[in-house]
Amino acid sequence: MNAEVIVRAYEENDVCGMIAVWNEVVEEGVAFPQEEFLTQQSGRAFFAEQSFCGVANERETGNILGLYILHPNNIGRCGHIANASYAVASASRGLHIGEMLVKDCIEKAREMGFRILQFNAVVASNVHARHLYERVGFRQLGTIPGGFRMKDGHFEDICPYYIEV
């Protein structure tokens, strides 16, 4: 890909592309806990309720290549811990879009006053994501045996990760 890719805050006209990318990851059934697809209505509401949504956008075409959502992981005394999810369109994988999204998310979490970014359920077999997280400084907290039910019904371990932002 020679096109310029930027990561920026999502806008209302991005929602259709965001829903398509999100639903592709849900359909694959190997990374997100969600099983229901977003509709236009539920997708608009879902993205609007996040603390922040970033999109990787191909500047020339406006195509959404990936996205992230950022929100508190908990409330009250643990409200300084953020959580995020990332989705990259299958046609854009291997182009470092995920790395751009993760780095932008870390910076955005810091700007928003979060102190920690924690991922609760990284599937152990998602080696590309795990290598990316470790490369940018995340630490694995442990392993939860059988914590994720794959699309085909078998269970895989999950690995929580965190980074101080």
Written description of the protein model:
The protein has a single domain (5-164), classed as 3-Layer(aba) Sandwich (Aminopeptidase). Helix content is 28%, strand content 33%. It has 4 helices and 8 strands. It has helices spanning 15-28, 40-48, 97-111, 127-135, and strands at 5-9, 52-58, 64-72, 81-88, 116-123, 139-140, 144-149, 155-164. The longest helix is centred in the middle third of the chain and has 15 residues, at 97-111. The chain is globular and about 40 Å long.
Topology overview:
Blueprint: E1 5-9, H1 15-28, H2 40-48, E2 52-58, E3 64-72, E4 81-88, H3 97-111, E5 116-123, H4 127-135, E6 139-140, E7 144-149, E8 155-164
Parallel strand pairs: 4-5
Antiparallel strand pairs: 1-2, 2-3, 3-4, 5-8, 6-8, 7-8
Brief synopsis:
This protein is of the alpha+beta class. It contains 4 helices and 8 strands.
- What overall form do the CA principal axes indicate? globular
Kindly report the average pLDDT value: 96
* CATH topology annotation: Aminopeptidase
| Count of all domains | 1
Number of helices: 4
Beta-sheet strand percentage? 25-35%
- Report the span from N to C terminus: 30 Å
The number of strands is: 8
Helix content: 25-40%
Uncertain regions spanning at least 5 consecutive residues: none
Q: Strand pairing plus helix content: what structural class?
A: alpha+beta
CATH class placement: Alpha Beta
**CATH-level-4 superfamily name:** Gcn5-related N-acetyltransferase (GNAT)
Summarize the main sheet: 8 strands, mixed
Strand and helix order: EHHEEEHEHEEE
- Indicate the CATH architecture: 3-Layer(aba) Sandwich
Cα radius of gyration in angstroms: 15 Å
